[in-house]
Amino acid sequence: MDLSNLQPAVGSVKTKTRIGRGPGSGKGGTSTRGHKGAKSRSGYKRKIGFEGGQMPLQRRLPKFGFKNINRVDYKAVNLDTLQALAEAKNLQKIGIEELRAAGFINRRQLVKILANGAVTTALTVEANAFSKAAEEAITAAGGSIQKV
C-alpha cells in the first residue's frame, strides 16, 4: 500500500448533480426550481424571520424592556470565601490581586464583597464595593476595608 493507490471508502463520495445543462440531463429547463415565484429567481435569499408573507413573530410581539448603559456589573465574593482563602494561603490582606491569583475573578471584573458566611480573623479587605452587612462583619472581626 502506498499513496498512489489510496481511495475513499465505497459510497462515501457522491458526484454532484449538474443542473441546468439542457433537457438531456433530466435537470434542465427550470433546473429543479419549479415554476415562477421568488425561489425560482436568481439572487433569491430569504430574509431572516420571513414567514411566507404572514406577519413575522418578531413584529407580532410587543417591544419591552431596555438595556441600562450605566449598569455596573460586580462579581460577588462572599465572606466565607474570603475566610477560606485567608486560611488556605495564610493571608492578612486580601485584595483584588489575591482574588485574581486564586481564580475567583478575571482581569477586568469588579468585585463586591457580600455577607454570606462569617469572618473569624482580622482581615484587611480591598474591593470595589461592599454590602453594609459585609462591612459590619469585617470590622466586627477586627479587620478593615478599603474601597478601590
Polypeptide structure, described:
The protein is of the alpha/beta class. The chain has helices at 57-60, 79-89, 96-102, 132-140, and strands at residues 74-78, 93-94, 110-114, 124-127, 129-130, 144-147. It has a three-stranded parallel beta sheet. A three-stranded parallel beta sheet has the order 2-4-6.
Q: What's a concise summary of this model?
A:
About 20% of the residues lie in helices and about 15% in strands.
Task: Note the total helix count.
Answer: 4
Mean pLDDT: 94
Order of adjacent strands in the largest pleated sheet:
1-3-5
Portion in helices: 10-25%
Oligomer: single chain
Strand content: 5-15%
Compute the number of strand runs: 6
Biggest sheet statistics: 3 strands, parallel
What characteristic shape results from the CA principal axes? elongated
Could you give the distance between the termini? 69 Å
Which class best fits the helix and strand makeup? Answer: alpha/beta
Low-pLDDT stretches: none
Query: What's the order of the H and E elements?
Result: HEHEHEEEHE
Radius of gyration: 33 Å
List the helices and strands and how they pair.
Elements (H helix, E strand, L loop, with lengths): L56 H4 L13 E5 H11 L3 E2 L1 H7 L7 E5 L9 E4 L1 E2 L1 H9 L3 E4 L1
Parallel strand pairs: 1-3, 2-4, 3-5, 4-6
Search tags:
three-stranded parallel beta sheet, single chain, alpha/beta, 148 residues, 6 strands
